[in-house]
Backbone:
């Protein structure tokens, strides 16, 4: 009754619910119980987390963040309170695949074969391309992710879908990361990845190329999932922007939020940066 008191008369709600209006006012004079006080404090923390994480967290990630902060509250309780307060993650929308294959060009075998797990960084990288609508026309985005931590290690954006887009993304990844032993690079069979220029770049650095099977969208699910997250959590909610402004916006989302602040359920609700740091610490202790 308190929640809807601004929308409906108290006496009318009391009649519908079969209670006395005086009983409602007596109840309102009482101090909130311990459980309700705890709920109010929890709601404040939930709101703070949800707002601080760009309103993209649902109850599972909010619950994990509460645990990190030493706050009590079951996942069901958090979900119930978020529903009561109308706190929810941003609405997700559908998106489309961008790259197109060239049947006349030989593609690499599918060595990855949907095995989306590896025990160390810089063993398997996955890559993909998508497009974003801007006020100045399409903006094409190419990324390289480390399969171990889901971290974006290479990023390239521009107004052209030419091979240079993913060459810049891979070159950036190679500048930022050092690898020893075999490194596999997996992508779809888009013409950019089967091009002579891209294959030569991979060969020069001793990178083993792997490509999805024809028509098998799940073969590159990790990279496609990243673009789904990028678009539904950021791009679709950013409003109309110029191409340059959208590039800055996407760069900030990836480098500041996605890589360093956003928890991933696949990583045990750790950020990519945190996941790699813990791996390095463990490796140092083992040595």
Residues:
């Amino acid at each position: 009754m308190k929640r809807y008191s601004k929308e409906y008369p108290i006496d009318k709600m009391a009649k519908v619910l079969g209670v006395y209006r005086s009983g409602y006012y007596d109840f309102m004079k009482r101090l909130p119980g311990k459980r309700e006080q705890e709920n109010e404090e929890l709601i404040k923390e939930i709101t703070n987390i949800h707002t601080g994480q760009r309103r993209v967290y649902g109850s599972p990630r909010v619950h994990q963040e509460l645990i990190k902060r030493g706050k009590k509250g079951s996942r069901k309780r958090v979900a119930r309170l978020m529903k009561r307060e109308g706190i929810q993650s941003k609405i997700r929308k559908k998106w489309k695949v961008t790259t197109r294959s060239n049947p006349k060009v030989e593609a690499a075998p599918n060595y990855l074969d949907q095995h989306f797990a590896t025990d160390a960084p810089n063993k398997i990288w996955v890559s993909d391309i998508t497009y974003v609508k801007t006020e100045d026309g399409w903006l094409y985005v190419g990324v390289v992710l480390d399969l171990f931590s889901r971290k974006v290690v290479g990023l390239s954006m521009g107004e052209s879908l030419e091979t240079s887009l993913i060459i810049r993304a891979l070159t950036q990844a190679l500048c930022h990361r050092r690898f020893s032993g075999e490194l596999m690079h997996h992508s779809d069979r888009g013409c950019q990845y089967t091009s002579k220029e891209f294959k030569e770049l991979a060969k020069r650095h001793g990178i083993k190329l792997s490509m999805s099977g024809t028509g098998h969208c799940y073969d590159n699910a990790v990279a496609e999932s990243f673009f789904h997250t990028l678009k539904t959590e950021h791009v679709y909610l950013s409003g109309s922007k110029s191409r340059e402004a959208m590039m800055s916006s996407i760069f900030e989302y990836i480098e500041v939020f996605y890589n360093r602040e956003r928890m991933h359920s696949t990583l045990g609700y750790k950020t990519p940066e945190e996941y790699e740091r813990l791996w390095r610490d463990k490796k140092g202790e083992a040595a």
